[in-house]
Amino acid sequence: MPRTAFFISDGTGITAESLGRSLLAQFEDVEIRMLTKPYIDTLDKAHSLVAVIEATAVRDGERPIIIDTIVDEEVRAVIREALGFKVDIFSTFLKPLEEELGTHSSYSVGRTHSIGRDDVYMDRIHSVHFALDNDDGARTHQYDKADIILIGVSRCGKTPTSLYLALQFGIRAANYPLTEDDQDEDGTLKLPRVLASHRHKLFGLTIDPRRLAAIRHERRPNSRYSSMDQCMQEVQQAEAMYRQMHIPFIDTTRFSVEEISTRMIAETGLHRRFSPH
Amino acid sequence: MPRTAFFISDGTGITAESLGRSLLAQFEDVEIRMLTKPYIDTLDKAHSLVAVIEATAVRDGERPIIIDTIVDEEVRAVIREALGFKVDIFSTFLKPLEEELGTHSSYSVGRTHSIGRDDVYMDRIHSVHFALDNDDGARTHQYDKADIILIGVSRCGKTPTSLYLALQFGIRAANYPLTEDDQDEDGTLKLPRVLASHRHKLFGLTIDPRRLAAIRHERRPNSRYSSMDQCMQEVQQAEAMYRQMHIPFIDTTRFSVEEISTRMIAETGLHRRFSPH
């Protein structure tokens, strides 16, 4: 029977879940079922959740782990009574921070925050639409407005990465697919002409040809496009060009979209227009 | 002179930053400059960062706040020596969790984790491409494969929300724009026929007409499309239809994309295909 962990918040639950998952990921041997419970912002919801937690404790035969970031004093008091092992992030760290900063936190006076901000909202909308308008080499004339231009072979992860950069950090990321159209007569990939004047903005993606073939296979099964030969050849050409032109690049095979994006930012010093929550 | 906070990690820094921002957001009166330092995964990088932290302490005239999730023991030891006020998330909570779970954490043996997982990667790629293929009513025939279909007037936030649902949770979100084409002769908005058989999947978005006008104005200045009259009329019609057809809806004006998405999931019980980091 696995243990259960509850990530509880009166907001989105993103912070409680993010921290909770990071902490529990350190216990690989223990099977833990993780449940996020956001928007627990009334006494009624808190009482219902306590009932769920206690039923879980009975079923599991072990008390659940409770990781919460509830701000409201009364709601917190209800959850605190639940039968569980509590990791109380805010109250653990806010007291010492209050002393260090010489002031009271709004937490200690029970005020909640909304993470929606006008400027962030507008930056996000613009960045997302910029990424979409400049996806897959669609509108090359906006490259002068791009913060970064991702290049790579078809289905190596350019689109999810450019959208993540837009949503999480407000970065305007264009992307351009490297295809056989950009090859020399002898089969060598050249830097496409439309990118030549933006070389300092280029960032390459590469991928294990086997994974590429698997991804392409789902799109066009048993095609030349998804064949191992074709994938190997395209990836080799792309990597050779990155090296020859000194274009920084990252292998997306081993990394999540979060890792690819944050590594790019760390490597290029890209300016984040805003920060996530 | 503002205080400075460093969010330090040997990974993406997402957890340290997310928690750090949540904690520091509770101190609205204090001006705090926040810097995220991801991928501090060698002794060299750690020593360089310590130099930066100490220079910052001198400049600010106050010791910086250091919030870290470094796993590597030696790297951690270097950062621990820096002049700063430390919020050590992992070591604070892992010890009690080890006792509760009756086992050692990989943290205490210095093992790092990568957040990239094959199944998550594939789910993400598919969900993102699903959102793009089904953006703005483009390919209505995939609605049977959608987990949710967002509806709303043009530029009310459908696209960023559907992409966020795809990237963060692997949810397949289509979206469909409500336009004048879907109005009756008397100007009443009807539920578009292509959506009629998917009513249980519909989720409406609405927005303050003033914000809508501002967003549209940046796209097509001084047009009928961006006029207050037009925006008010479209929003009123959309909301009337949501109410009449009992379609759940959310006002995107006051909320971030994170909040809109997590509220939708909480309200509909949508199944998350994976969880962020």
Automatic annotation (TrEMBL), chains A, B:
InterPro entries, alphabetized: Kinase-pyrophosphorylase, PSRP
Enzyme Commission designation: 2.7.11.33, 2.7.4.28
Catalytic activity, as annotated: [pyruvate, water dikinase] + ADP = [pyruvate, water dikinase]-phosphate + AMP + H(+); [pyruvate, water dikinase]-phosphate + phosphate + H(+) = [pyruvate, water dikinase] + diphosphate
UniProt binding sites for ADP: 152-159
Keyword entries, A-Z: Kinase, Nucleotide-binding, Serine/threonine-protein kinase, Transferase
Keyword Glycosyltransferase found: no
Domain of life: Bacteria
Molecular functions per Gene Ontology: ADP binding; ATP binding; phosphotransferase activity, phosphate group as acceptor; protein serine/threonine kinase activity
Class of the enzyme per the UniProt entry, highest EC level: transferase
Pfam family for this entry, one: Kinase-PPPase
PANTHER family: PYRUVATE, PHOSPHATE DIKINASE REGULATORY PROTEIN 1, CHLOROPLASTIC
Summary of the function given for this chain in its UniProt record: Bifunctional serine/threonine kinase and phosphorylase involved in the regulation of the phosphoenolpyruvate synthase (PEPS) by catalyzing its phosphorylation/dephosphorylation.
HAMAP family linked: PSRP
Record-stated family: Belongs to the pyruvate, phosphate/water dikinase regulatory protein family. PSRP subfamily.
Protein name per its UniProtKB record: Putative phosphoenolpyruvate synthase regulatory protein
Taxonomic path: Bacteria, Pseudomonadati, Pseudomonadota, Gammaproteobacteria, Oceanospirillales
